[in-house]
């Protein structure tokens, strides 16, 4: 499959938001199973509305560089934020349309983002993802790209 990566354009916005919602749905379902519905509703709320807002904000943020992966359509996206003082780059968001997953799109976007971070003179690249089973494919992509995990655990308790 041919994958090209290009700068995000405003006309990509709705395709990117829609694929982001599809891509992250399994992660939110896993989180609900982990937390239980009561705690999940308290912690997460309407994730679709919040996530749609967050993706739109990242796409429009002046401090974020955004690229899209294109196959026969927009298949994924990545946003990168640089901290020049710390000489680090954060892969802030990365999403691949579920029907394009397992075809190299995530690996292409990850490698592309790391190269952009390096080209900007940064000496550290950071990416974050979930530790549940729904995020196992993402963790595999990031570890294959040379990232080393440093687990963080959040604890919640409904009262």
If you had to describe this structure to a student in words, what would you say it looks like?
The protein is an alpha+beta fold. It has one domain (about 5-145): 3-Layer(aba) Sandwich (Aminopeptidase), CATH 3.40.630. About 45% of the residues lie in helices and about 20% in strands. The protein has a five-stranded mixed sheet with strand order 1-2-3-4-5, sandwiched between helices. Helix 1 packs across helix 2. The longest helix is centred in the first third of the chain and has 23 residues, at about 15-35. It is globular. The model has no long low-confidence stretch (mean pLDDT about 95).
Which terms would index this structure?
Ribosomal protein S18 acetylase RimI-like enzyme, 159 residues, 5 strands, transferase, globular, 5 helices, 43% helix
């Amino acid at each position: 499959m041919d994958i090209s990566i290009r700068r995000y354009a405003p006309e990509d916005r709705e395709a990117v938001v829609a694929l982001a919602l599809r891509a992250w749905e399994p992660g939110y379902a896993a989180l609900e199973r982990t937390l239980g519905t009561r705690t999940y509703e308290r912690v997460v709320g309407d994730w679709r509305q919040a996530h749609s807002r967050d993706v739109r904000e990242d796409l429009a943020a002046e401090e974020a560089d955004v690229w899209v992966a294109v196959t026969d359509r927009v298949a994924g996206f990545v946003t990168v934020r640089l901290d020049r003082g710390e000489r680090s780059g954060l892969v802030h968001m990365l999403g691949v349309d579920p029907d394009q997953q397992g075809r190299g799109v995530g690996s292409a976007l990850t490698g592309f983002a790391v190269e952009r971070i390096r080209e900007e003179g940064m000496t550290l690249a950071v990416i974050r993802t979930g530790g549940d089973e729904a995020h196992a494919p993402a963790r595999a992509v990031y570890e294959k790209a040379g990232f080393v995990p440093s687990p963080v655990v959040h604890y919640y308790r409904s009262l």
